[in-house]
Design a protein that fits this description.
Largest sheet: none
Order of helices and strands: HHHHHHHHHHHHHH
Structural class: mainly alpha
Number of helices: 14
Low-confidence stretches: 3-17
Length: 313
């Protein structure tokens, strides 16, 4: 076999492996276009994350003249015996479930209502997303006024109805966490409503008509037509809501600052206090690593469930 024939056979194969002419240039151009969006993520997200993980293995504390020493896993060993941290972790899970589940159920009902052909539907939809447009700090201040023990709307209404003298909702040991959960549900429900409403609007109306002609009632149409259509969106938004709620900080900080007696001290608040009130940066970074690990496990479970669901379909 001559060298010319070898070149003749290998040439097309090599050209096929290398791709069409100009492919490398297009790849470089694509990376050049993505780079402006990728750099802020690397600098503001990935970089601090890696730095925080490294900080968790040190005894870093506040103070310019204090040297930082590498202590290995000592911070994580201390966390295992820190009952206050695990108590905050338990409160964080209660908060996340207590907000996410009612939030989804109420948002689903509101989305089904707003999907109906109602008069002034556009106005109802606009009003429904107002809490979503408000910053968390503003929401916290507003609800502090609602819960005010002396002149708050809630206590004034209770007094007007003759149901008692009201109470201090945000400082009571038994009422602080439920009161904060109620605010979390109200503040986050519009986002879930918008996502579910988008899924409902993409559901073919012909399927509902066909089910109605077959004699299916409202509940059966929801179970066999509506829910399968919005299930992927529902699972995605619920997983994201759980993660966002577990990592909540601003809303609870404005409302209670973690009090009373730590009844609303979420893990993020506990880590914040350790870092910026007591100056234990290394220990707070270890707490952050534990929370990142928990969120990663939740994301992994969600992704595995989505992959298995896609394979079954």
């Amino acid at each position: 076999m001559t060298s010319a024939s070898v070149k003749g056979r290998s040439g097309p194969r090599r050209a096929q492996e290398e791709g069409p002419p100009g492919a490398a240039a297009r790849d470089r151009a694509a990376w050049f276009l993505v780079l402006p969006a990728l750099l802020p993520i690397l600098i503001l997200s990935v970089g601090p994350l890696l730095y925080g993980i490294a900080l968790a293995f040190t005894d870093a504390q506040s103070g310019r003249t204090r040297s930082t020493q590498w202590i290995g896993t000592l911070n994580f060993q201390d966390l295992l015996h820190d009952t206050l941290f695990w108590d905050s972790f338990r409160i964080g899970l209660i908060w996340a479930f207590g907000v996410t589940v009612p939030q989804f159920l109420l948002a689903l009902g509101l989305a089904l209502l707003l999907n109906q052909k109602l008069r002034m539907r556009w106005l109802a939809r606009a009003l429904a997303i107002i809490p979503w447009a408000m910053p968390e700090v503003v929401v916290g201040i507003m609800w502090r006024l609602v819960y005010n023990p002396d002149a708050g709307i809630l206590n004034e209404t209770i007094r007007e109805l003759g149901l008692g003298d009201g109470r201090d909702w945000l400082t009571g040991l038994a009422t602080a966490l439920p009161a904060v959960i109620l605010v979390g549900i109200w503040a986050g429900m519009p986002q879930t409503t918008v996502a579910l409403l988008a899924g409902l609007q993409n559901t073919p109306h012909e399927l509902h008509e066909a089910a109605a002609l077959d004699g299916a009632g409202a509940w059966r149409r929801f179970r066999t037509v509506t829910w399968p259509a919005i299930k992927p969106i529902a699972l995605a938004i619920t997983a994201l809501n759980f993660i966002w709620n577990f990592n909540s900080f601003a809303l609870v900080y404005v409302l209670t600052s973690g009090g009373p007696g730590g009844r609303t001290r979420l893990p993020m608040l506990f880590a914040y206090e350790e870092a910026f009130r007591y100056g234990q940066f290394g220990y707070a970074a270890a707490m952050g690593c534990v929370m990142v690990a928990v969120i990663s496990v939740i994301l992994a479970c969600y992704l595995v469930g989505r992959i298995k669901g896609g394979e079954e379909r």
